[in-house]
Write a structure and sequence with these properties.
Largest sheet of chain A: 7 strands, mixed
Distance between the termini of chain B: 28 Å
Structural class of chain A: alpha+beta
Largest interface: A-B, 23 and 17 residues
Number of strands of chain A: 23
CATH class of the domain at 89-277 in chain B: Mainly Alpha
Strand order of the largest sheet of chain A: 8-9-10-1-11-19-12
Number of helices of chain A: 17
CATH topology of the domain at 89-277 in chain B: MetI-like fold
Order of helices and strands of chain B: HHHHHHHHHHH
Shape of chain A: globular
CATH architecture of the domain at 89-277 in chain B: Orthogonal Bundle
Number of strands of chain B: 0
Shape of chain B: elongated
Oligomer: heterodimer
CATH architecture of the largest domain in chain A: 3-Layer(aba) Sandwich
Structural class of chain B: mainly alpha
Strand content of chain B: under 5%
Strand content of chain A: 15-25%
Radius of gyration of chain B: 22 Å
Largest sheet of chain B: none
Distance between the termini of chain A: 51 Å
Helix content of chain B: over 70%
CATH superfamily of the largest domain in chain A: Periplasmic binding protein-like II
Radius of gyration of chain A: 26 Å
Number of domains of chain A: 2
CATH superfamily of the domain at 89-277 in chain B: MetI-like
Chain lengths: 520, 284
């Protein structure tokens, strides 16, 4: 009898334990540590050499820049380690460091550190981030003041100074470990083991294939008030696995979920969906030799007005928006509204183009989803919509590595591609101009549209922000009306977190600021 | 009585053979008639996206709002005829080469068999991928790629049979009567080759379907928006949560491959009674 009682008691105890464990799993609670799952693009933790998204996310947590962006608003830089003023013709920018700020070893941040850090990037010609300092001269004014000057007006400079590649390093420490301001710099090995910045976190361990561990910077005296003192960033390449990990409380943040995946997330998960800065567009080659009938501007207009943009947007899921132009919505000069389908206008343009029913090949990379948008279903829907408008399309998918060469060399007549900014400024979209990098990929030479060339030059050389915004809007409008590009979709960025985490703000460069994650 | 009406000897009717034949014939029937009765246009994108299987859409819809059931059925009309055509092409070319090599021997045999060895030296799928990638991705090129790797096994088998038959007395008698080499091959040797080759061909239909679907899965066969089983499974990877997109094409491939294998096994039993006896022995 007693034995039977023991068995019953043991079974009851086991059941109670499992029930408690189940409750714990069902309602995860905040702790000081979080795990972030993302598909790694990480080559180095030296900020001056980094030029990939995961690296930016890590650098943003470890280092600070002269200027910053507030939350997701990338239209106007705000103060970071310094405040700034510019002269009237936007060629000289004076940065004044905030008093009392220190690096993680407790030493003060001075103008020497700024000059060294920026000149280091300018001097490392093999660094992919080197171009950010092109044409910028750095001069120390006093211990707390630095002047950055350019030959021509450069209102994009403040936005450049938010880029984590231009983070301010502890110059004494970096120089001691091989840092220089030319190609002989040998500090990367040191910076891959130890951080030398003033951000809210310091580098604990790093493995570029698997995970990065950050811990709290005890000497941090900036504005961020971090809730999580230990952050593990894991390399989880499959978005489906990120979703499973998050739902199973194996991780607390999933960075790369698609619109369809966040729609099917279980209850109790927070989702932050916002348009990214990528633009997916159709390229219609203007070179007769390459494109034949596609080189007729009326053909581009026929395609532009034949498409049903909301039906294309349906494929992109949460957070996505119709591309209103080559400049995405969060950037200066972005247009308010995009093209609407007009089948009559499409038919008229098609008649004027000389199109005679021939099959046009649509090329696209079929193994490279952008913001969760896979190009194959997008191409199939475009094919279906253009067929309704009388344009016969044959699909020609190929792997990214196969397709990229013909895109870059401008030998594709009709294709789907994407463009993302290198830094948070609308100047990133000027390469779409006639005669510029992306324009030439579409066979669009400067001679073919000198008006657009002039509009691009006006945007590039504007000396005040109002004038600049107007110039960029005019540029985007002109491309929307007669350019060889049909902007389709700005895919969403979907970041999902455990229910107790808040504060996610998407940024086109560093994806999200880990220090801004807060426990509810 | 029914057996006599169908003129099928009772010994030929095995459970697996019957099941396989019924499934295979059903799929072949679907392949040639699907376009007439499927409920939706397989290319139409009018239905709600990623809809789970239900009353309106028997097998759900894909990421573009296309009916999976309609695409699956019309996909049969792409995959199965091409697989049958591939097997017929391989059978015709492989058998001819094998017969010539086996009958004429000497340098002809050496030349043709070294060519066969050359093809067989490469892993089948890898060689098919290389050929398909070199020719460019399309269904037609996938069939050519699959053909390049499929014919040698027929050549090998035919040669081995012909080598054994060409010195038989009845073959020699035919030659002494003045039969030309090709008449000898046609009249005296071919009837003895047909059985084993048919068994191989029926077993090979499943392999051909797997190979063509595999090439389409890798993007080297059917191109979008063609409804093809391998490319349908490939599309399912992008929507891993919507299990129905990949499950049904996978089941279709499974059933049709198993069916043709069952038929092939039964044919082998018919043409090679020793295998039937050995099975019966094992059972007893």
């Amino acid at each position: 009898m007693r034995t039977k009682f023991r068995y019953v008691a043991a079974a009851f105890g086991l059941t109670a334990s499992l029930a408690l464990a189940g409750c714990a799993a069902a309602a995860p609670e905040a702790s000081d540590s979080i795990v972030i799952d993302t598909a790694f693009t990480l080559e180095t933790s030296d900020p001056g050499r980094n030029y990939v998204p995961t690296g930016y996310m890590v650098s943003k947590a470890l280092y600070e820049t002269l200027l910053d962006f507030a939350g997701s608003d990338e239209s106007t830089p705000v103060d970071g380690l310094a405040s700034y003023e510019s002269n009237e013709d936007a060629t000289a920018f004076t940065f004044t460091l905030k008093d009392g700020r220190v690096f993680s070893d407790g030493s003060a941040i001075t103008a020497e550190d700024v000059v060294f850090s920026l000149n280091r990037v300018a001097g490392m010609t093999e660094s992919k981030a080197n171009f950010l300092m092109n044409g910028i001269t750095v001069t120390k004014i006093d211990d707390m003041t630095v002047e950055l000057s350019t030959e021509t007006p450069s209102l994009k400079l403040p936005a450049l100074m938010t880029n984590p590649s231009l983070a301010i390093l502890n110059s004494a420490l970096v120089i001691e470990n091989g840092g220089t301001t030319d190609d002989s710099d040998a500090a990367e090995a040191f910076l891959n083991e130890t951080s030398a910045g003033s951000g809210p976190y310091i580098l604990d361990t790093v493995n570029f294939e698997s995970q990065v561990v950050l811990t709290e910077n005890e000497n941090y005296n900036g504005d961020e008030d971090i809730d999580f003192t230990r952050v593990v960033i894991r390399n989880v390449s499959e978005a489906a696995t990120q979703k499973i990990n998050l739902e199973g409380d194996d991780s607390q943040v999933a960075v790369d979920l698609s619109g369809d995946q966040v729609a099917s997330l279980s209850d109790g998960i927070n989702v932050f969906s916002t348009p990214s800065a990528q633009t997916i567009f159709l390229l219609i080659n203007q070179s007769e030799e390459v494109g034949g009938v596609t080189s007729n501007p009326d053909f581009a207009n026929a395609v532009r007005y034949a498409l049903d943009y909301p039906a294309l947007l349906e494929l992109a899921g949460a957070g996505s928006e119709q591309a209103t132009g080559v400049i995405p919505p969060s950037f200066l000069g972005a247009l308010e509204s995009g093209v609407e389908q007009d089948l009559d206008a499409a038919a008229a343009s098609l008649d004027a183009s000389g199109y005679d029913g021939e099959s046009i090949t649509l090329e696209y990379p079929n193994d490279y989803p952008v913001g969760g948008v896979s190009f194959t279903p997008l191409a199939e829907r475009i094919q279906s919509q253009l067929a309704d408008a009388g344009i016969t399309i044959e699909l020609a998918p190929a792997p990214f590595t196969t397709q990229i060469d013909s895109y870059v060399n401008g030998t594709e007549a009709f294709s789907i591609w994407f463009w993302g900014p290198d830094y948070a400024d609308s100047a990133n979209f000027l390469p779409f101009s006639a005669g510029q990098k992306v324009g030439l990929r579409a066979g669009w030479t400067a001679e073919q549209d000198s008006d657009v060339v002039n509009l691009a030059a006006a945007a590039e050389n504007a000396t005040n922000f109002d004038e600049r915004e107007t110039a960029f809007s005019n540029f985007a409008e002109a491309l929307q009306q007669r350019g060889p590009f049909v902007p389709l979709i700005v895919p969403g960025s979907n970041i999902a977190t455990a229910s107790y985490i808040d504060g996610v703000a998407y940024n086109s460069t560093w994806t999200m600021d880990i220090a801004e994650l807060q426990a509810k | 009585m029914r057996t006599r009406w169908l003129k099928i000897p009772a010994a030929w009717i095995t459970p697996l053979g019957v099941i396989g034949a019924v499934i295979a014939i059903t799929w072949v029937g679907i392949a040639f008639t699907a376009r007439l009765w499927v409920p939706f246009d397989p290319l139409s994108q009018d239905l709600p996206r990623l809809q789970a299987p239900g009353i309106d859409t028997l097998m759900g819809t894909d990421a573009l709002g296309r009916d999976i059931f309609s695409r699956l059925m019309t996909g049969a009309s792409v995959t199965i005829p091409l697989a049958l055509m591939l097997v017929l092409m391989s059978l015709a070319v492989g058998t001819l080469i094998g017969a010539i090599a086996g009958y004429f021997g000497k340098w002809v045999d050496e030349l043709l068999m070294r060519l066969t060895d050359l093809v067989m030296a490469f892993p089948t799928v890898i060689l098919a991928m290389v050929v398909a990638a070199a020719l460019g991705p399309s269904l037609f090129n996938a069939v050519i790629a699959a053909f390049v790797v499929s014919w040698p096994q027929y050549a090998r088998m035919t040669r081995s049979i012909v080598l054994g038959l060409r010195t038989q007395n009845y073959v020699m008698a035919g030659r002494l009567m003045g039969f030309s080499p090709f008449k000898t091959l046609r009249v005296d040797i071919a009837p003895n080759v047909v059985g084993p080759i048919l068994v191989l061909a029926s077993l090979d239909v499943g392999t051909a379907i797997l190979l063509l679907s595999g090439l389409s899965f890798l993007g080297l066969g059917a191109q979008p928006p063609t409804a093809e089983w391998g490319s349908m499974i490939s599309a399912a990877i992008q929507n891993f949560d919507s299990w129905w997109i990949g499950l049904f094409p996978g089941l279709a491939i499974l059933t049709v491959v198993m069916a043709f294998n069952f038929v092939g096994d039964s044919l082998r039993d018919i043409f090679d009674p020793t295998s039937q006896v050995s099975r019966a022995g094992a059972r007893s």
